[in-house]
């Protein structure tokens, strides 16, 4: 954002929760009857203090409990991102997967993004993996009328057939 002359930032709140069924499936979590099993972090990303993107991130509590990275935005690795934070506890992220779609904004999202109800948003369901183990999943919401998402793929990372 700095390269575009924009001041980027974010607000967040983290807490332990019992992950809902869709998140449990993405994180390969077994059914829980022992209380909270995930760290949920809700983000509002901003550009020049205006909301530009929402993200709800989930990490398995058993994976980070008792480590310096248990809360994504607190401690010595605050704000470093999933890849660097997981590496700090010996977990190497090997890949991510994303499902991209679009839909009408939900009422709560419209309020947080300062959008009109009925507007269209881009949704990204992203999961980071350490080999066969999912270590973080997030639901990302971006207003399509204000922003575009640009992707790239490193060719040397694509398996040859």
Automatic annotation (TrEMBL):
Domain UbiC transcription regulator-associated: 3-148
Stretches of the chain forming a coiled coil according to its record: none
Listed name of the protein: UTRA domain-containing protein
Pfam families: UTRA (PF07702)
Organism: Streptosporangium jomthongense
Matches recorded under InterPro entries: Bact_HTH_transcr_reg (IPR050679), Chorismate_lyase_/UTRA_dom_sf (IPR028978), UTRA (IPR011663)
Domain of life: Bacteria
């Amino acid at each position: 954002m700095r390269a575009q002359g924009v001041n980027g930032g974010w607000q967040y709140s983290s807490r332990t929760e019992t992950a809902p069924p869709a998140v449990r499936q993405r994180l390969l979590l077994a059914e829980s009857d022992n209380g909270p099993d995930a760290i949920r972090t809700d983000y509002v990303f901003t550009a020049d203090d205006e909301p530009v993107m929402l993200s709800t991130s989930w990490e398995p509590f058993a994976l980070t409990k008792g480590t310096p990275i248990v809360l994504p935005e607190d401690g010595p690795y605050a704000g470093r991102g999933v890849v660097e934070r997981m590496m700090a506890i010996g977990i190497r992220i090997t890949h991510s997967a994303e499902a991209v779609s679009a839909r009408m904004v939900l009422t709560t999202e419209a309020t947080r993004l300062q959008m009109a109800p009925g507007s269209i948003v881009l949704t990204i369901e992203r999961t980071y993996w350490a080999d066969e183990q999912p270590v973080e999943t997030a639901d990302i919401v971006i207003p399509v009328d204000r922003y575009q998402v640009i992707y790239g793929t490193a060719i040397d990372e694509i398996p040859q057939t």
